[in-house]
Amino acid sequence: MQRHLATLEDVAREAGVSQQTVSRVLNNPAVVAERTREKVIRAMQALHYVPNRSAQLLAGKSAPSIGLITASLTLHAPSQIAAAVKSYAGSHQLEVSIAMPVQADFSSLQDRLNEFRAQHIRGAIISLPLESSVAERLAAENSDIACLFLDVSPESDVCCVRFDHRDGCGACVQHLWDAGHREFGLLAGPESSVSARMRLSSWREALHRLGIANAVTVFGDWSAASGWQKTFELLHQHPRISAMVVANDQMALGVLSALAQLNRTGGRAVSVTGYDDTADSLYFQPPLTTVAQDFNVLGKRAVERLIQLMAAPQIKIRELLPTRLIIRQSTRPYSGETDDEKDKVITQLKTLAEKL
């Protein structure tokens, strides 16, 4: 159902004032008596009135725009996707209005869509990991805005362009299995993250197919610091781990740092895989085996598909983009350990745990 937008006339009627008074409250509130101003503001809030900014700012002269709702651009993946979206939107003579809500709940996202609506934006790319229920509700309650999602589960009944997490995660596990590893540690992203849960589920599916049911799981927060800390936690729980599968490259950087501190090199080295293939991962020590996602392709396809969706809202778009495993020196064949070496590792871990 299309949302009814309250008009200036609706607000004036609700507040019991003229449309000119409402306009003054919006554009020059200092000239309106405080009591009248408060009546108008209450009416706007009651009607969920959204000011028409495109009419306020050079009406009709602004370039056509699309919206992008994204996580913080200080993070690698969101920043790369945003750069690609802006680049390819520009090639289609489209401006991009970017919103970065603090929370990814329905109310916050609805507010951002209302902001886009006020700017006469009729298409939005939503580059946030969202629960199916939130994504489906946003699409259903904003039928006048074409919504294209980039990070939702395969079960979500919404238009989406997304990467094939299952393929990339399965490739990591298979690569380590083929190298002889049988004792796995899984370092997932936050349990609240949809994409983190999808990667964890895909790892576990791949391990289950190979007959491994004893992999130990811990959860980080995407940062290198949590990767460092969680490495000690994982090895304390299960000292015989020979391979760690990590949900992103930043946490993998922390993992490699912790392993270096533990002197887990040579025959005692733990193999590590990351996810994202960030530009720096080639220069980690050792260079990181990781899953590459082409964010440039994702941005390009998202813009192209959104343009199609805006022109034909009735179409259903569900596009899956490939990932690929980049094998570097952070993974190696399993060489085994002597009992003396295992006892030495356990003693070292206990000593470090007491210091942390």
Automatic annotation (TrEMBL):
Stretches assigned to the HTH lacI-type domain: 6-60
Molecular function per GO: DNA-binding transcription factor activity; transcription cis-regulatory region binding
Keywords, in A-Z order: DNA-binding, Transcription, Transcription regulation
SUPFAM superfamilies, per database record: lambda repressor-like DNA-binding domains, Periplasmic binding protein-like I
InterPro entries, A to Z: HTH_LacI, LacI/GalR-like_sensor, Lambda_DNA-bd_dom_sf, Peripla_BP_I
Transcription regulation in keyword set: yes
Highest rank taxon of the organism: Bacteria
Pfam families per record: LacI, Peripla_BP_3
Record-linked CDD domains: HTH_LacI, PBP1_LacI
Record's keyword annotation contains Cell wall biogenesis/degradation: no
NCBIfam families: PRK09526.1
Protein name (Swiss-Prot/TrEMBL): LacI family transcriptional regulator
